[in-house]
Specification:
Rossmann fold; two-stranded parallel sheet; 12 helices; binds NADP nicotinamide-adenine-dinucleotide phosphate; binds guanosine-5'-diphosphate-alpha-D-mannose
């Protein structure tokens, strides 16, 4: 019988890549979506449009234990990938309470439902490099102390600890991936990489006159989302659950990202980028760079897309989206 996977956050960037990956492996793939997504599939299920007929989608809310319980009872999954979250760090400064409620309670509800209804199910929690926050060592690995700088980061530390606690207390096969930033042309438009590539493409097409950004000096370890979801799956294939850092080991500034994307389309970005102090965060994570040596050793996972591959794939995609001719010949990753 085909193994059955349940994915929360299946409509997001990672959820859509993971669903495709698991379908290709022969899984029966179920996803939890918000009820509104089923009412407005054209807009809310856009990333799943190619695979929608092969998925089983269930309406449920991360805020409701009863609804999570019902979906887990109806599916009894072999593997559960918990990706749903309020994932935008900036928004967590605007509404701390809902970020904590959704991200912590949602994780707890799912773990509890799995323990009670499907105890053999293997559980993946989407941890984040934001948990490291104000880092005390570079690069960061599985032993680096957490010092989150936002309620988003705090919610992920809480989810990580809940996952560890279910593993140790109830014997749940529960794993956290500590994933560093990963991008693709499916990235949400509010995240800085997609904001840059979509914004510069619009400027090049004459559809926009400026791009407003915040801190250009922040540095991130950017990988490709399609490769990172494969690491999630590899983690759940281990006999014994363990936590893993997933990263490229390279870090680049937001400024470098803008420069490379603009160079590709021959745009003098300094004429168009406006630094907006309102886009600075009240507390920033200045540098992130991960050490994924454990993932390489235990999972055999290694990233292959480079920073420049990712920037070029995204800018080319967004140029095509606004009708600009495709000037480069780099291979598409997606
Ligand atoms: P994303 O594109 O923002 O997707 C988030 C998903 O969560 C969407 O499917 C969204 O559904 C769902 N969601 C949000 N709030 C919800 C709620 N209240 N109830 C039900 N569903 C809800 O995020 P992503 O980039 O794919 O990331 C996936 C996970 O990995 C997240 O937990 C994120 O925090 C974590 N993470 C991401 C990165 C990264 O660089 N991408 C790095 C580390 C960790 P709607 O479509 O209905 O909004
Ligand atoms: N979003 C955004 N918009 N960020 C900006 C802007 C802007 O206009 N200008 C500068 N930045 C800087 C932010 O201050 C931050 O330092 C950096 O760009 C990256 O911001 P985001 O792309 O929003 O991502 P993030 O690093 O905060 O969070 C992402 O990665 C985490 C893993 O480290 C998200 O995917 C999280 O869900 C994920 O956990």
């Amino acid at each position: 019988m085909a193994p059955r996977a349940l994915i929360t956050g299946i409509t997001g960037q990672d959820g859509s890549f993971l669903a495709e990956f698991l379908l290709a492996k022969g899984y029966e793939v179920h996803g939890i979506v918000r009820r509104v997504a089923l009412e407005d599939p054209e807009h809310r299920l856009g990333r799943l449009s190619q695979i929608r007929p092969r998925l089983v989608l269930h309406a449920a809310s991360l805020e409701s234990y009863a609804s999570i319980h019902q979906v887990v009872a109806a599916t009894i999954p072999d593997e559960c990938y918990h990706l749903a979250a309020q994932s935008f760090v900036s928004y967590s400064f605007d509404d701390e309470f809902s970020t904590l409620q959704t991200n912590i309670n949602g994780t707890h509800y799912l773990l509890a439902a799995i323990k009670n209804l499907s105890p053999r199910c293997r559980f993946y929690f989407a941890g984040s490099s934001e948990m490291f926050g104000k880092v005390d060592e570079v690069p960061q690995n599985e032993k680096t102390a957490f010092h989150p700088r936002s309620t988003y980061g705090i919610s992920k530390v809480a989810g990580f600890e809940l996952t560890r606690n279910y593993r140790e207390t109830y014997g749940t096969h529960a794993t956290s991936g500590i994933l560093f930033n990963h991008e693709s042309p499916r990235r949400g438009f509010e995240f800085v990489t997609r904001k840059i590539t979509s914004g510069l493409a619009r400027i090049a097409a004459g559809k926009s006159r400026e791009l407003r950004l915040g801190n250009l000096d922040a540095k991130r370890d950017w990988g490709h989302a399609a490769e990172y979801v494969q690491a999630m799956w590899r983690m759940l294939q281990l006999d014994e659950p363990e936590d893993f850092v997933i990263a490229t080991g390279q870090t680049h500034s937001v400024r470098e990202f803008v420069q490379l994307a603009a160079d590709h389309i021959g745009l003098d970005w300094e004429k168009y980028v406006v630094i907006d102090p309102a886009l600075y965060r009240p507390s920033e994570v200045n540098i992130l760079v991960g050490d994924a040596a454990k993932a390489a050793r235990v999972l055999g996972w290694r990233p292959s897309a480079t920073f420049s591959d990712i920037v070029l794939e995204m800018i080319r995609h967004d140029c095509r989206a606004v009708g600009l001719p495709d000037s480069a010949s780099q291979p598409q990753l997606v």
